[in-house]
Design a protein that fits this description.
The structure is a single chain. With 115 residues, this protein is mostly helical. It has one domain (4-92): Orthogonal Bundle (434 Repressor (Amino-terminal Domain)), CATH 1.10.260. It is 53% helix and 0% strand. It has helices spanning 4-14, 16-27, 31-37, 42-48, 59-69, 73-78, 86-92. The longest helix is centred in the first third of the chain and has 12 residues, at 16-27. The termini are far apart.
């Protein structure tokens, strides 16, 4: 019997091709143009797009797609917007049982790091 959590993740990641297809369509980017702009073959990108689209094997390709479309990786992979809150992270992450102490320390900016 498959764990329901794993089943849900598999379902969400299987929608990757549909999300990619929608991004291309909504932004008016033909598949061949996307391939050229992220330096990947058209055949490879065609394998990612659509209902039966597969996930890229190379994580760098996911990063290129994320950067190109200016969407978080979480959206490409799971259809979720990025949520940087600690509470959201803890709800999604498997945490081993036990007693933990977490310390968050503010550090001063370095000269080259201006926000």
């Amino acid at each position: 019997m498959v764990n329901k959590g794993i089943e849900l993740i598999m379902k969400k990641t299987s929608d990757f091709g549909t999300r990619l297809e929608t991004l291309c369509r909504d932004r008016g980017i033909p598949i061949n143009e996307l391939a050229r702009r992220i330096s990947v073959s058209s055949r490879t990108v065609h394998a990612w797009v659509g209902k039966s689209g597969r996930l890229p094997r190379n994580p760098d390709h996911l990063k290129k797609l994320s950067d190109f479309f200016k969407v978080p990786l979480e959206f490409l992979l799971f259809g979720e917007e990025q949520n940087n809150s600690l509470e959201a992270f803890l709800q999604k992450s498997e945490i081993h049982t036990g007693l933990y102490e977490i310390t968050i320390k503010k550090v001063s900016q370095r000269n080259g790091d201006k926000k």
